[in-house]
Amino acid sequence: MGNSVIQTEPFVLNQITTDAIHSFVKRNDNSLKVRISQKIHSSVQTRKVQSIINNLLDNSNKNSQNNIIHLHLRIFSGYLYIKVKDFGNGFDINKIGKFIQPFNQGAERDTKQGLGLGLTIIKSHIDLLKGSFKARSTIGEGTIFFVKIPVLIVHSKDRL
Asked: What is the arithmetic mean of pLDDT over 99-125?
């Protein structure tokens, strides 16, 4: 813990999301809508980014029932932008600092609770990658997480 070394590797956005999408589809009653804005070859620590995406989707899944969860990825000006939006339970945004703490499961009603480590892992990986994140949430209406991670652009391809 805390001694991770950043080892970057090349990726294309649709490749980095494949595992997350397959994992999501196998284990829930929500549906996933994915939008990838550009097909750009970049370099980043892909396992950390995959973990961030998996944990964001898992968090949305646990707090939504029979809804559509949106995943949008985009690379622009040297950054990977990840947006995950759900129409689930939402939470009091003033308590986000508490939810990032380990073993805090957040909302107590109508959720499929885990260990309370998802947001902790997300925050740890984002910090390690020198990125940032923010959230918007309304109780009873849902949550949107925004993640911004610096990437090295290897070369660009045509838009999808």
From this structure: 64
